Model the fold of this input.
Amino acid sequence: MSILSRGSRTRRICIDALLCAVAMMLSYLEALLPLNLAIPLPGFRLGLANVIVVVTFSLLTPTDAAAISATRILLMGLLFGSVTSLYFSAMGGLVSFCALLLLRCFRIKCSFVGVSVLSAAAHNTGQIIAAVTLFGMSLIPSYLPLLLFASVLYGGIVGVLLNLLIPRLQAPLARVL
Done:
């Protein structure tokens, strides 16, 4: 049972809007970080906004997580990106969300580290699918192993953040809702 089941629809929309704003701030922060100097992978991001999506998926509902993820991707693409970057983000977000849904549907239990690594790997796979659909096969799929390695490394870091964050958010969210 979701902790939102007691709250009103207005309260739910407000919580989702707040979480979407936090996810957008994290996305913007990521865009400001000069990661291309430390990690020479074109298009690579840490996935900090994924923290909010996984928190929402875990503590609220998949519907809330989907709404937050889709809204963040759309707004960030319109405000700071291009049609191509929006397409890449949308494909990554869609495949990542589907991976989270599969975990839930098959009742597969994972730590937040496992969930985050899976989500990051699925996101990168979705971006490779987007690249192939836009640019053709060529050498693009050969880039996937590098992205999957980065998914394991940085998805693990995000998972550790989630392990620290989720227990601290459960009680305050329960009081608000």
About this structure: The chain has one domain: 9-176. The mean pLDDT is 86. The radius of gyration is 16 Å. The longest helix spans residues 144-176.
